[in-house]
Every structure is written in structure tokens, then in C-alpha cells.
Design a protein that fits this description.
278 residues; mainly alpha; two-stranded antiparallel sheet; 12 helices; 2 strands; globular
Length: 278
């Protein structure tokens, strides 16, 4: 198993994709955090009574720092999701899966090695994304006179949850890559689901009386709930941002997201066992 995992990691780290995705994760994390963080630190929103409410003054330092450091997480998990698709989609596209299975005839071992490799490479990308987000967020908070790490212990746990979310999205991408062997189609469908279909579905579901609770179980919502992105934000501010009033506890959200990853991994495992390879 160790040899198979090492082989899968070598496939990833010997092509330009790894540093491209890692660099993109760092830059996008820093850029999006800088843009959204500037609004959070310096922006204000109009209140029904005609006055303006400063976002930074509407919450405590811990909530403000947590929100700024996690604002770009949707871009981070999109990158690990894409990486998970490419890890298996590249095997189908370049027809290297046959050689892989000749070297590792036990398909279960092969897919398990890919799961471990995706978890490791997703962690690398997550650390780069986190580094960019924290760097940009710290500069913003420090320049505005706020504490950079007001509660290091609590923020450290939030950072670990960010890494967990990005790793689970990598495994979801791996499952989708097996489900749709055509890499281009899998990337198109996957990105469309994450960025277009799921957000629209969440909006329409919430129009129903029963929809608010159901919407909180969608992958994007459980990802935000896992890192407690909007915890500490005043209720009236959440409503102005159009946020759902129903949010899962972080550990329940993490279990739900792990369930999505487990189902997609199981689908990939099953199809890899059953599908013919040419």
C-alpha cells in the first residue's frame, strides 16, 4: 500500500498541475480575503432606521477575524474539488489507467491509494490557501487596529476545520471523476454544480416553508457551517446578507460533509471494480 500511495503522489508532484493549483490556492486565498476583508473591516450597511451599521463594530474581534480568514473558503474547496476530478480523470484521458491496473491488479487497493493521495495533496493545497488567506487577513486587521489573532486556540481549530473541508471536497471530486470518466465533462459538470446549480437550488428551496432546514444540508452550506464562518454576526446583519436562519452545529455539518465524501468515494470504489478498462 505504501508503494501505491508513493506512486500516486509521484504522479501528482511530477507534473506542473501541483504547483499551479498550489500557487492558485495561495493567490486566490489572499486576493479574495483582501477584497472581502476590506469590506468587512471598513464597510457599513444601511439599517431600516436610516443609520449605517459598521460591520467591524457589529461583532467581536474573534468573530471578525474568523469571518475574514474563512471568506475565501469556497474558492479553496473548488480547487481541491477540481484536483480530485483530475487525479482520476487524467488516468482516463491519457489512458494510463490500464498501466496503473497492470501494476496494481487489486482495484480496491488502487482506489484506496488514490484516496490517501488525494487527502495528502488536498492538505498541501489547503495549507497554501490558508497561508494566503491568513496573510492577507492579518495585514487588513493589523492595519485597521484590530487584533490579528484575538483567540489563537479557537482560530487554530477553525483553521484545522478549513483544512478538513478542503480535503473532503477533494474526495468528493475524486468520486465525481470516477462517475464521469470524461475529464472535461466531469470538470464542466462539477464546476457548474458547485458554482451555479447548488446556489440556485438553495435559493429556490428556501422559498418553501420547509426549505430552510433542507437548504442547510447542501454541501456549500455545510462547508460554511463547519468553519462557523458567520458565527457571531448579528441576526439583522445576517438577514441583510441573505443568510439562512438555520445553520448546523459545526460538528454536525462536518459529519454531513464527510457523508457526502464517503458516498462519492464509495461510488468511485464500486464503479472502479465493475467498469471495464480499455
Amino acid at each position: 500500500m505504501t508503494g501505491l500511495v508513493r506512486s500516486e503522489l509521484r504522479k501528482f508532484f511530477t507534473v506542473r498541475m501541483w504547483w499551479g493549483l498550489t500557487l492558485a490556492a495561495f493567490l486566490l486565498g489572499a486576493g479574495l480575503t483582501a477584497l472581502s476583508g476590506w469590506f468587512m473591516v471598513h464597510g457599513s450597511i444601511p439599517m431600516p432606521n436610516g443609520e449605517s451599521l459598521s460591520l467591524a463594530e457589529s461583532m467581536d474581534d474573534v468573530s471578525l477575524a474568523r469571518m475574514i480568514y474563512t471568506q475565501s473558503i469556497s474558492m479553496g474547496y473548488l480547487l481541491t474539488f477540481v484536483m480530485g476530478i483530475i487525479v482520476i480523470g487524467g488516468e482516463y484521458r491519457h489512458k494510463t489507467l490500464t498501466g496503473t491496473l497492470l501494476a496494481a491488479p487489486r482495484r480496491g487497493s488502487m482506489i484506496l491509494a488514490k484516496v490517501v493521495a488525494v487527502a495528502i495533496t488536498s492538505t498541501v493545497i489547503a495549507l497554501a490557501h490558508l497561508a494566503g488567506s491568513v496573510l492577507a487577513g492579518a495585514v487588513l486587521l493589523g492595519s485597521a487596529g484590530h487584533e490579528i489573532f484575538p483567540d489563537p486556540g479557537q482560530l487554530g481549530l477553525v483553521f484545522l476545520r478549513v483544512i478538513l473541508v478542503l480535503v473532503l471536497w477533494g474526495l468528493i471530486g475524486l468520486g465525481l471523476g470516477v462517475l464521469i470518466p470524461n475529464q472535461v465533462v466531469a470538470l464542466f459538470v462539477g464546476v457548474a454544480i458547485v458554482w451555479i446549480i447548488e446556489p440556485l437550488l438553495g435559493v429556490f428551496i428556501q422559498l418553501a416553508t420547509w426549505g430552510e432546514t433542507l437548504a442547510s444540508y447542501l454541501p456549500a452550506q455545510v462547508s460554511l457551517a463547519t468553519v462557523d464562518a458567520y458565527s457571531g454576526m448579528p441576526e439583522e446583519t445576517q438577514q441583510m446578507f441573505g443568510l439562512s436562519g438555520t445553520t448546523l452545529t459545526w460538528w454536525i455539518a462536518a459529519l454531513v460533509l464527510a457523508g457526502y465524501a464517503a458516498v462519492m468515494t464509495a461510488v468511485g470504489w464500486f464503479l472502479t471494480h465493475r467498469r471495464d478498462v480499455s
